[in-house]
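Customer ticket, subject: "Can you confirm the structure for Asparaginase?"

Message body: Hello, I'm evaluating your service for our small team and ran a test protein. I'd like someone to confirm that this is what the system normally returns, since I don't have a reference to compare against.
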Amino acid sequence: MTISNSSVPPSSAGAAALPRIAVLATGGTIAGSAADAANTAGYKAGVVGVDQLLAAVPALSSVARLAPEQIASVDSKDMALPLWTTLAQRINTLLASDDVDGVVITHGTDTLEETAYLLHLTIKSDKPVVLTAAMRPASALSADGPLNLLNAVTVAAHASARGQGVLVAFNNRIHSARDVVKTSTYAVDAFQSPEIGALGWVQDGRVEFQRRVLRAHTLASEFAIGAAWPQVEIVASYAGVSRIAVDALVAAGVRGIVVAGTGNGSIHQSLQQALVDAVARGVPVVRSSRVGSGHVMRNGAAADDALGFVGAGALNPYKARVLLMLALAAGVTDAAALQKVFDTY
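Agent reply: Thanks for trying us out. I re-ran your input and got the following:
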């Protein structure tokens, strides 16, 4: 793909001095449409093209020179690993160019936190990369996508966003890709960073960061997008759970398992024995939690060292899966080495 001319032309002669931001569209609710503006229950995601999305926000022309690309047009519930590869590779190519100052990605909300964390670990640039989305389709009454898009471009064009890793701009807040999670099925403030809060905020063209990201990311990350993705699956612990799912996954040749445990990553005794058996057969097991915030303490509810489990820390099961896939693809399989990876990222 090549960078196209923006559908939002500069509004003044001084626009040439504005940052050049690539806008990569992947579909999602932000590009969704429904027949009834007041009833969005039957909307279709990903049907509005990137040029139309940008044209709906004329104020963008005073913030940046835009280079739009339509990477995909999917409902993000159907996000696939090959699309992750395409997206990461395209972003790395764009950011390697002196002509591009940052990237904004429009995405569906369902898997945004997973895509954001994947990019946080595999983008090899300190230039800003900002994801945004919407809870209401573009055709809806009071659609939230246009303002979220304007704010995302504003953040990507701002000097203070550089070196912060991959960011999510949503509902006037700026989140780190590592921390952010979707917390509501319907509200326009659906994205939060429950454990330690947002990085900062963006409003009326003003961007303010109140803390910085400390864990390794982007240029400090050892991981890169490869040709193949190891198969990693997630199982959950709950009252009365059996070992059937774990045994079936191991028999199918899964490369790793993340368990969404109860509380502090605790695991039902039946499931735990199945996971111990999986480790004995060379399948790494990462212990996360199904709880919405907090962190899994190493050797807490389960004796990780004795059982051969890896603790996910504050990563939820879905982000833990992303990190485990990248680690396995890089050849990291030993439990101690994997624990170091989870302690680092």
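A couple of notes from the result: Residues 1-13 have pLDDT under 50 and may be disordered. The chain is about 25% helix and 20% strand. Feel free to reply with more questions.
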